[in-house]
Amino acid sequence: MKSKKTILYFVILVIGVIILLNLLANRFFFRLDLTQDNRYTLSTATRDILRNLEEPVTITAYFSKNLGPDYDIVRRNFKDLLVEYANLSKGMLAYEFVDPLESEELENEIMQEGIMQLQIQMREKDEIKVQKAYMGAVIHLGENTEVLPTIESGIGMEYNLTTAIKKLSVVDKPVIGILQGHGEPPLSQLQQVVYDLQVLYNVEPVTLSDSTLELEKYQTIAIISPTDSISDNDLAQLDAFIARGGRIFVGINRVDANLNQNLMGFAVNTGLETWLAEKGIIVNENFVVDENCVPVGVQRQQGPFVVTQQIPFHYFPVVNTFSDHPISSSLEQVLFQFASSINFSGDSTVVFTPLLKTSDNSGTQPASTFFDLNKQWSKTDFPLSGLTVAATVEGPIAGNIPTKMVIVGDGNFPIGGGQQGQINPDNASLLVNSIDWLSDDTGLIELRTKGATSRPLDDIEEGKRAFLKYLNFLLPIFLVIIYGIFRMQHRQNLRIKRMEAGYVK
Length: 505
Known about the structure:
Oligomer: single chain
Number of domains: 4
Distance between the termini: 11 Å
Low-confidence stretches: none
Strand order of the largest sheet: 7-6-8-9-22-21-19-16
């Protein structure tokens, strides 16, 4: 049996090791990331931005105290993130945590700066009360500031913080041009996209002229849903822009329809489709149909009443098959209206990469077609699978300088409609991610799309979902029982062994 002195020495040693580990942890931050998507590992883009800071950055985190475990974990995760940022910045980034509720004057001040006041429900003595709280931050660089009104736990924490630092530290933002003059939507109809892009870019409308010098300032030009003919001179300007290494995004409508009158589809020809075909990019003159589609409301007469009935409209495909590419890796579903399929017929010097594909049950219809809302669709109407509706092209597309293009076979997908011009979030992300991939060489697009894969239980079959639920519930209990049986058997064997003659401990 161990002496009391030995036990005392052992306890002192353990306490000393714990204290030493805490001191080292404060000086050298380290954590293991066992997540599949490495969500707790800083991206290359973040590391490069922090290591290249030329001016000191100060971050003031405004967090209320004692908000409960769900909110305390957000504070702890944000602090861990700031510790890593400070270590990587080599002394160029400092931070502090402040509780705004300690001073009414400070509380009013940060609200004026843009920190959002939250209302949090808390349980106290079997009662639920609502308490105001703050979880935000202000980033200072020189005389400039950037505000994070609220901070949420998850993969977006790193992206929001790094983007804010990048926005403050960049001297000259790249300029993105949105082409105008051929019936394209104005920037007011692309509000959601423009708002997201303005974090890292200056976004301007651009019209083509006889002078190619006017395009030199643009990093990328986006061509979205032209409806009028594009002149040969304008197309030549775009060729000259690409030949110098400029990047282009194209969202093109090859077909359209008048659903309010004769329910007929028709082809759209602007000259852009011919210009793309010369580069081996064929946007087909067809309507993509898909069994996975958006429902539309149709008014039907039922007795004396007119009712609105939701029916699947297969000409509005829902795309959720994406390539493993920085542009599409974070997307979950993109909604199209009258999309067309895309093929490539160019040479091997240019790399064609499909981004978005239709489901396994899809097909095409000719441009001149009648939309029969009473048609009973069957499997024979969807004989195709995996039709490409968006793609990238890389290489010497026009000239000898390698460049990039993104082509989407639907020009209307990022255009706002309805209340406040809102669109499906992934539709906006498709365009913003494309512009990032074309324009930004720092790798922020990989950070934007990092670990954003969704795994909803609703997409799992009922039987498998039930199996996983009971497995999560019963497996820990089963393991505890197995451990108990093993421990009981071990102690019983030990007891029998001790009862044997000549047993020596």
